[in-house]
Amino acid sequence: MTDWQITTVISQVRHTDSARSLRLALSEPFQGRPGQHLDIRLTAEDGYSTARTYSLSDVRENRTVEVTVERAEDGEVSPYLVDVVEVGEPLEVTQPHGGWFTWDGRDTAPVQLIAGGSGLAPLMAMIRTREVVAPTVPFDLVYSLRSPDRMLFADDLRQLIEHRRLPVHLAHTRSAPADDPRPVGRLSADELAEITIGPEHEPAVYICGPNRFVEHCAAAMVAAGHQPGRVRTERFG
């Protein structure tokens, strides 16, 4: 039987017109792991309830967590989380779950992150945790997004780039800033092999995003020489 607890929304960050992050104060503290997710349940006045799973984008504290949600137009839960719920209101959540797609800060191996769209959320939890527990571990991020107005965690990424805390490669697939030297388009296998950490360094590779994006990137990384067991994936859609 699933254990649920009541949390309180204590802050929110609007990323785009269809995505935002919610910071939740926990009534029963827990320590999540970067890469995990939890379930959020909504219950109507007539007793009908439904739940969906969302990625944790910040697990640095054990009394608060951050979840990041992108609206699914036909969704039952995400429209409420993105457009309706307000700071101070309650949300019902589970403990974090998922153990395969997680990063352990005690691991000193390089880490290659590859995100498509809102797949950046669990990878941001890894980046934020690394800043606290293992800032010297080599990290590299490739982030594929449709256009600049679809960027999640823009302030975080800007600071990472400006302070050179880790390499960030942005790949716009439909429209890009005028000063972006990269041509608009999807990531190719050759481009991924060129801009990511090489297999000779044996990085742990984490790929998260839509199904086709994840399948393409995972196949490209294995073809480039990465061991399949070092390539971990999380997909949606």
From TrEMBL:
Cofactor(s) recorded in Swiss-Prot or TrEMBL: FAD
Keyword hit for Iron-sulfur: yes
EC numbers, comma separated: 1.14.12.17
Keyword set includes Iron-sulfur: yes
UniProt-listed InterPro entries: Cbr1-like_FAD-bd_dom, FAD-bd_FR_type, Flavoprot_Pyr_Nucl_cyt_Rdtase, FNR_nucleotide-bd, MRET, OxRdtase_FAD/NAD-bd, Riboflavin_synthase-like_b-brl
Alphabetical UniProt keywords: 2Fe-2S, Iron, Iron-sulfur, Metal-binding, Oxidoreductase
One Gene Ontology molecular-function label: 2 iron, 2 sulfur cluster binding
Pfam family, one: FAD_binding_6
Enzyme class at the top of the EC tree: oxidoreductase
Residue ranges of every copy of the FAD-binding FR-type domain listed in the record: 2-103
PANTHER family, per database record: NADH OXIDOREDUCTASE HCR, PROTEIN RFBI
Protein name as annotated: Flavohemoprotein
Organism: Gordonia insulae
